[in-house]
Amino acid sequence: MRQSDEMRQRAEAASSIALDAGYYVHSLVGPGALEHTYQAFLAEEIRFRGVPVRTQVPIPVRHRGVILDVAYRIDLLVDEALVIEVKAVVRPHPIHRAQLVSYLRLSGHRIGLLMNFHVEHLKDGIQRVLNDW
Fold first, then answer.
1. pTM, to two decimals
2. Domain of residue 94, residue span
3. 51, 73, 81, 113: which could form a disulfide with 11 (CB 3.0–4.6 Å)?
């Protein structure tokens, strides 16, 4: 199995677990909390389900051989394969999706989830985003 196939399978498995965890967190907390609250709850719920998660993962950006500290950070990196961008906004903006696309490209990951918890039904706040390299 090629490395990219293995990474894709891990990302798909992580997506399923992250979505289940997200639904649980949303039912527990509801739509009115702050973004960092959802991020912390979601990370802990995914860990509780046995999957490793890193939060606020810095993305190094290289330009002409120099690493630039431009403060890009992935909200959640699940099983080193899935990027999750957590939002808690009334009205999502296209820049939120563009931000996730940028994080996928800069980090070299292929699959991401944009999860906006400030919705009545979480299914209405989820977008799956692919980096088509």
1. 0.92
2. 3-130
3. 81
